[in-house]
């Protein structure tokens, strides 16, 4: 269970951070997994950078929960 949480959290953190960088600079078009969410949900289209930041924070929290479960 710990490995699964670490993997999912790491991917969320990676995709969220890449999404923020992509929204602010235009880089990382190949890491566009969160773009599917931000472009297809109408109320998230105007807040794509914030949505990606929230995804990155959720990934970070998930990794921290996985780390605390081992102790």
Provide structural commentary.
It is built from three helices and no strands. The chain is mainly α and 71 residues long. The chain is elongated, with a radius of gyration of 13 Å. The model has no long low-confidence stretch (mean pLDDT 89).
- Strand content range: under 5%
Helix content, binned percent: over 70%
Number of alpha- plus pi-helical segments: 3
What is the average per-residue confidence, as pLDDT, rounded to a whole number? 89
Strand tally is 0
Main pleated-sheet profile? none
Shape: elongated
State the distance separating the first and last CA atoms: 14 Å
Helix and strand string, N-terminal first?
Answer: HHH
Uncertain parts? none
Which secondary-structure class do the elements indicate? mainly alpha
Using only C-alpha atoms, the radius of gyration works out to: 13 Å
Main features:
single chain; about 70 residues
SSE topology:
Layout: H1 2-25, H2 35-40, H3 48-69
Helix pairs in contact: 1-3
Compose a concise summary of this entry.
By secondary structure, the protein is mainly alpha-helical.
């Amino acid at each position: 269970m710990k490995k699964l949480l670490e993997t999912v959290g790491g991917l969320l953190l990676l995709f969220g951070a890449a999404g923020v960088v992509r929204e602010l600079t235009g880089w990382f078009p190949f890491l566009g997994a969160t773009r599917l969410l931000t472009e297809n949900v109408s109320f998230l289209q105007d807040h794509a950078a914030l949505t990606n930041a929230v995804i990155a924070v959720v990934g970070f929290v998930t990794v921290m929960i996985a780390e605390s479960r081992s102790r």
